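Hello Y.,

Per our agreement to keep a running log of every chain we model this quarter, I'm adding this entry. I've kept the format consistent with earlier entries: sequence first, then predicted structure.
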Amino acid sequence: IAPVQLRFSQGTGFKVPTFNALFWPGSGNPDLLPEESLSRELGLRYQGAFQLDVVHFRRDLTNMIVYNSKARQSQNIGLAQVDGFEYSLSKTLAGVYHQLDLTYANPQDLSNNSAVPNIPKQKLTYLASYQWDAWQFSGNLQQRDRLRNAADTQTVLSSVLLMGAGVSYDWSKD
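Predicted structure for the entry above:
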């Protein structure tokens, strides 16, 4: 395998509204339409002493489903677009796998030329894991940029730092 790879992918998606989003008493919206999307990615990967991925992504959405907390129900955004870059760097050092990911997204509501709600512009994630026999131990940290709430330009959800830890055992190794 060559140490540098160029890749391209394209796919379509379809998401129907949930039963609760359509019919929940007091907050259901029976007028919700299914969400459709076209996604494309162009990426470059280097694999040598470490692995580095650089990816440009773009997703075009029709009837994107978002929750509007002010109206207390889900609504459709006629046309939306999310494009951005994702960078990933990973390496195993002293038996511990390390991965650092940075995502920058530019979510746009093309129907009214504003930001798409509930999608962070920036996200930074660090993951470390260690394999010992059939056991795997892992931990992660994620910093997510602040979010704008749906249909309410005044409400902003603060930036957050999330932490996680996990232990797993692979029974098939016995």
